[in-house]
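Attaching the record inline, Q. Sequence:
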Amino acid sequence: MDRPVSRPKVLQVCAVDVSVGPLLRPLVLALREAGAEVHVACTPGGVSERLAAEGVPVKPVRIARKILSPRHLVSLVQLARLIRRERYDFVHVHTPIAAAIGRAAARLSGTRPVVLYTTHGFYFHDRMRPCLRRILIWQERLFGRLCTDFLFTVSPEDHATALRERIIDADRTHCLSSLGVDLERFDLSSPQSLRRTDLGISDADSVVAYVGRLVREKGVLDLLEAIGLVRERVPGIRLVVIGDTLASDRGRGVQSEIRNLIAAHGLEKNVVFLGFRGDVPSLLRLVDIFALPSYREGMPLTILEAMAAGKPVVTTNVRGCREEVVNGLTGIIVAPRDPRSLSEAILSLLVAPERAKAMGLAGRAHVEKAFDQRRVLDEEVEAYRRLAKRHGKPWGDGPLAMQAGSRQANSQEVS
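Structure, as predicted:
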């Protein structure tokens, strides 16, 4: 049976299914509430299974995360066949490798869907070798001109870069200024379900939290060194690590480096590894400070969630992080790859708890004002409607999904 003319068909594409929770699920639900039929294509796993259980069809397409992989050609053919078979009106791609493969597949399918690309942080950045940076900019420009109908950026810096580098025309892009945070998940007045003792931590301890993948570019090794330095002044320091390394992550040898650093600094009793968790809001309420010492970011959701939880943030002076944290007001920004400066920033907040508390409250207010997920979802749905009209694609008159963000599952955020 043919689908109703007014019901658009949308495919969301990303590399790994752990990205579905933080990156795609709120938008999928918002588009469904606005009247679209939405499918997801990604490497299958537990997260996509939960999405399928909610009635969202998940198409298993394995996409490697390495820049150079023979798997890419297979993924390209699979996606092109899927798009041709399902005849999607919109193909919306996310994450660098999946975005390149997905956009090429949409064009090769011969069905002319509207192709949208959300860059969650261009792969090139200001600390990269200039020659490599130019090559990657040229690649983005090529894909932007030949394979992309519309570009969402989540970072204002990326938006300015896209226009300056002529990656796409100004009338075909929109800056969301983040993916936003679901403030209802971080209701500070709700009863707390966890206690520090549940994690083997004393109420007298000073606790720093890190949320994310355990990879070198997130600065986890620098953070461990910094905790070693802090312990010289604060013996009761604890680092709570929420996250792990994915099978598809590059440089998985960082796990052995982490173990070596912990042993070298005698931090066995100071670091608590929790792995990927679905109760991040409850966990963040137990800590004193949130730290993300990344070398490269897009627009990290973890920082926004820490501020939504009312915690001061210590982070690095890189794209995304410096766009979210107001230095000196909601947190402290330090140079990347500098464990000593990182330790000094953490220590300055631990010895001044009233200052830390004030920063946490300011962070919560900042998120409420500038990073509410409901605004972001409405802007995305409205862009879809405009594109449908411009390209002659179907779209009904369903209401905007103002509350779709509140349905986001308490899934582990992976960035």
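Residues 398-415 have pLDDT under 50 and may be disordered. Residues 189-370 form a domain with the Rossmann fold fold (CATH 3.40.50.2000).

More tomorrow.
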